[in-house]
């Protein structure tokens, strides 16, 4: 019939146009099978790499003075509310500092706790000028504490070769700075080992 010839001509032309590299013999061979399977090759989508938001480098942070405390803000009284918040934070962390609480359990939690706002005192040091410094910890870095004293002086005290004490509700804890050379964020995940004697 005339309709089937038109259909055959259309399919042949369609295959020729769709697959220009295929020879006529190959097209004719496909048509003799009575069924044509049209293969579809979808275009591969190129994955767009997500750009990571880059923060400031340590050098840029220093240049921008992001962690600098302005002189007019260096007043002990300003940070007393921070100390009150810290005390409540420690009480909640230790489920209340009760007389029957086990000291080593509290000590273990304090080792991993955030110390910003704690009042500490330098009790021992290889440098005598540091002994007796007392104040609120404003900033903790890997190697130093920045402490504001009652005299409104900002002191930068190295952790190395210093022993610090902090007191809360009658419980006194000692921090051996030489074993504490970690950032606050790193310290929370570290496992501390109990040691009998620790030297400066």
Automatic annotation (TrEMBL):
The keyword Nucleus applies. GO terms for molecular function: ribonuclease P RNA binding. One of its GO terms (biological process) is tRNA 5'-leader removal. SMART domains: POP4. It comes from the Eukaryota. InterPro entries: RNase_P/MRP_Rpp29-subunit (IPR016848), RNase_P/MRP_Rpp29_sf (IPR036980), Rof/RNase_P-like (IPR023534), Rpp29/RNP1 (IPR002730). It is found in: Nucleus, Nucleolus. Keywords: Nucleus, Phosphoprotein, tRNA processing. One of its GO terms (cellular component) is ribonuclease P complex. Component of ribonuclease P, a ribonucleoprotein complex that generates mature tRNA molecules by cleaving their 5'-ends. PANTHER family: RIBONUCLEASE P PROTEIN SUBUNIT P29, RIBONUCLEASE P SUBUNIT P29. Belongs to the eukaryotic/archaeal RNase P protein component 1 family. Component of nuclear RNase P and RNase MRP ribonucleoproteins. RNase P consists of a catalytic RNA moiety and 10 different protein chains; POP1, POP4, POP5, POP7, RPP14, RPP21, RPP25, RPP30, RPP38 and RPP40. Within the RNase P complex, POP1, POP7 and RPP25 form the 'finger' subcomplex, POP5, RPP14, RPP40 and homodimeric RPP30 form the 'palm' subcomplex, and RPP21, POP4 and RPP38 form the 'wrist' subcomplex. All subunits of the RNase P complex interact with the catalytic RNA. Several subunits of RNase P are also part of the RNase MRP complex. This is Ribonuclease P protein subunit p29. It comes from Struthidea cinerea. The gene is Pop4.
């Amino acid at each position: 019939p005339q309709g089937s010839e038109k259909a055959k001509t259309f399919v042949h032309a369609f295959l020729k146009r769709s697959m220009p590299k295929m020879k006529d013999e190959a097209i004719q061979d496909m048509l003799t099978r009575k069924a044509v399977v049209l293969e579809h090759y979808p275009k591969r989508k190129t994955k767009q790499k997500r750009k990571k938001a880059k923060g400031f480098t340590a050098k840029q942070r220093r240049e921008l003075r992001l962690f600098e405390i302005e002189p007019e803000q260096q007043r002990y009284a300003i940070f007393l509310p921070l100390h009150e918040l810290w005390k409540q934070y420690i009480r909640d962390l230790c489920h209340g500092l009760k007389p029957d609480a086990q000291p080593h359990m509290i000590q273990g939690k304090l080792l991993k706790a955030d110390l910003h706002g704690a009042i500490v005192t330098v009790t021992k040091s290889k440098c005598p000028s540091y002994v007796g410094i007392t104040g609120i910890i404003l900033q903790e870095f890997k190697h130093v504490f920045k402490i504001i004293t009652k005299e409104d002086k900002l002191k930068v005290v190295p952790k190395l070769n210093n022993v610090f004490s902090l007191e809360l509700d009658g419980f006194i804890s000692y921090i051996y700075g030489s074993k504490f050379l970690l950032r606050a964020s790193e310290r929370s995940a570290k496992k501390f080992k109990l040691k009998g004697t620790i030297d400066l």
